Amino acid sequence: MSVVFVAASQLPTPFAVFTMHGFQEVATGREHVALTLGDVADGAPVLGRLHSECLTGDALFSLRCDCGFQLEAALRAIASEGRGVLLYLRQEGRGIGLLNKIRAYELQDAGADTVEANERLGFGADLRDYGICKPILEHLGIHSLRLMTNNPRKVRALTELGIEVEQRLPLQTGLNPHNRRYLATKAGKLGHLLGNLHQGEEEECL
Question: CA 89 to CA 198: how far, in whole Å?
Answer without folding.
Answer: 28
